[in-house]
Amino acid sequence: PVFAGMNGSAIENFSCVIYNIFLMNCTWQAGRDAPADTQYFLYWQKSRDEEEIECELYIKDENCRNMGCIFQNVTIGIEKAYFLVNGSSRDSLIHFYDEYIDLYKIEKLMPPSNITVSCDGIKNDCTIQWQRPQISHSDKDMCFKYLINIKYK
């Protein structure tokens, strides 16, 4: 199929990250050859059964061009989510960009909580305990790996 739109007008470097359990931040860069008045709009669909919704909170650059979006109350489903960024310009047609993303792969985990250390000077040993971080995509205990860095002072 022939896609309408000027070459080099679609966004570039699209990426999203989920953080603080339920926030998602997506960013992109304007197409290299996009006209100066191009404005971009992000739509996403969490699964095939759900409505496609437009970003409600855009991140803008100094020219008031949408360059990203912050989503709140995001939960991770089992299907890949669909993202679409299209653009409009007075002068020309703008290529759209779309991508399917597994949301669990872009979640930045919180640190473990309730970390406690208790040491026994006589036995010369210490016990370190913690609770696993909260995650967006499941309440199950997943297979977490932890890296413990102990510095002696």
Written description of the protein model:
Helix content is 0%, strand content 40%. The chain has 153 residues and is mainly β. The chain has a domain at 12-105: Sandwich (Immunoglobulin-like), CATH 2.60.40.10. The strands form three sheets. It has a four-stranded antiparallel beta sheet, with no helix packed on it. A four-stranded antiparallel beta sheet has the order 4-3-7-8, with no helix packed on it. A hairpin with a 3-residue loop joins β1 (12-19) and β2 (23-29). The N and C termini lie far apart (66 Å). It comes from Drymodes brunneopygia.
The assigned structural class equals mainly beta
CATH domain topology of the domain at 12-105? Immunoglobulin-like
CATH homologous superfamily heading of the domain at 12-105: Immunoglobulins
Name of the level-1 CATH class of the domain at 12-105: Mainly Beta
CATH architecture of the domain at 12-105: Sandwich
Largest sheet, in brief, is: 4 strands, antiparallel
Give a brief rundown of this model.
By secondary structure, the chain is an all-beta fold.
Main attributes of the structure:
153 residues, mainly beta, Immunoglobulin-like, four-stranded antiparallel sheet, 10 strands, 40% strand, elongated
Write the layout of secondary structure elements.
Layout: E1 12-19, E2 23-29, E3 39-45, E4 53-54, E5 58-60, E6 66-71, E7 81-88, E8 97-101, E9 113-120, E10 125-131
Antiparallel strand pairs: 1-2, 2-6, 3-4, 3-7, 5-6, 7-8, 9-10
